[in-house]
Amino acid sequence: NAGVTQTPKFQVLKTGQSMTLQCAQDMNHEYMSWYRQDPGMGLRLIHYSVGAGITDQGEVPNGYNVSRSTTEDFPLRLLSAAPSQTSVYFCASSPYLGDNEQFFGPGTRLTVL
Amino acid sequence: DAKTTQPPSMDCAEGRAANLPCNHSTISGNEYVYWYRQIHSQGPQYIIHGLKNNETNEMASLIITEDRKSSTLILPHATLRDTAVYYCIGRSAGNMLTFGGGTRLMVKP
User: Fold this and answer.
1) Is the pLDDT of residue B98 over 80?
2) In terms of Cα–Cα distance, which of B59, B16, B67, B14 is closest to B35?
3) Of B43, B91, B98, the CB nearest to A99
4) What's residue A99's pLDDT?
5) What's the pLDDT score for residue A1?
6) Nearest chain B Cα to A55, which residue?
7) pLDDT digits (tens, 9 = 90+) for A37-92
8) Cα gap B85→B39, rounded to integer Å
9) Which of A15, A35, A69, B4 lies 20 to 30 Å from B91, alpha-carbon distance?
10) Cβ–Cβ of A106/B91 closer than 8 Å?
11) Which of B42, B91, B98 sits opposite A106 (nearest CB)?
12) C-beta of residue A50 within 8 angstroms of C-beta of residue A42
């Protein structure tokens, strides 16, 4: 199993551009989530999904959209990038909503100029 | 949600036990405590979690006080590869892991 994969690894955007960060998992996990990590800080939850077709907001959802059309994929969309969205983005998955281990991807480092 | 408090940094000699404390005085009765670590800029890695009994796995041991207001993660024989930021985390509704600042553990030769 590849686990949780994220693309791209690095991305530079100009203010106002849009892009999609990709996240995929091959473990048939129901629960997937997106976090951002600013320099020297802990992770903050952006959006999460408890299954295909179901998404909900986390702690810092503004400026981001998500969808979950399949169990495997959970893309994160930035509609109009802002410098405040410069961060490292991590995707995670776990078998179900509840007390269990979350598996994290390697991250996408995004810089918005 | 449990608010967790950890020391910002700790040192440990290679081969010795690393004991990382965490205070979670606001934890609710059915809320688990999770420990993750993040090595350099990689994605966080799960270590262990527990409710009220002590737990042990191949990576570490977790000691939870009887009143559940604090816990200690024990790495029995720290190696240089254990140098990382360790997060003690409470879990809120929606399976959100609430990450704080963590403890930066430096294992020294």
Assistant:
1) no
2) B59
3) B91
4) 66
5) 77
6) B94
7) 998 888 899 999 999 999 999 989 999 999 999 999 999 999 999 999 999 999 99
8) 7
9) A69
10) no
11) B42
12) no
In the DSSP assignment, the letter for residue B44 is: P
My answer on whether omega of the bond before A8 falls inside 30° of 0, hence cis, is yes
With tokens 């360790």, the residue in question is B86
CA–CA distance from B17 to each of A7, A49, B12, B73, B101 (Å)?
Answer: 37, 38, 8, 10, 22
**A39-57 b/e (C-beta count within 10 Å ≥ 16 → b):** eeebbbbbbbbbebeebee
Contact yes or no for B41 and A59 at CB 8 A = no
CA A10 vs CA A65, A108, B39: distances in Å? 20, 6, 18
Residue B24 Cα, gap to closest chain A Cα (Å): 17
pLDDT of residue B100: 77
- pLDDT, averaged across chain B: 89
Q: Kindly indicate the confidence band of residue A2, based on its pLDDT and cuts at 50, 70 and 90.
A: confident
Can you tell me the distance from the alpha carbon of B33 to that of A62, in angstroms, rounded to the nearest whole number?
28
Indicate if the pLDDT at residue B28 is higher than 80.
no
Residue B85, classed as helix, strand or coil, is strand
Closest CA to B45 of A8, A106, A34: A106
Q: Which residue of B has its CA nearest to A46?
A: B96
Predicted confidence (pLDDT) per residue in A3-26, tens digit: 999 999 999 999 999 999 999 999
- Top residue of B96, B98, B103, B104 to mutate, by most chain A CBs within 10 Å, is B96
Of B55, B87, B60, B86, the closest CA to residue B74 belongs to B60
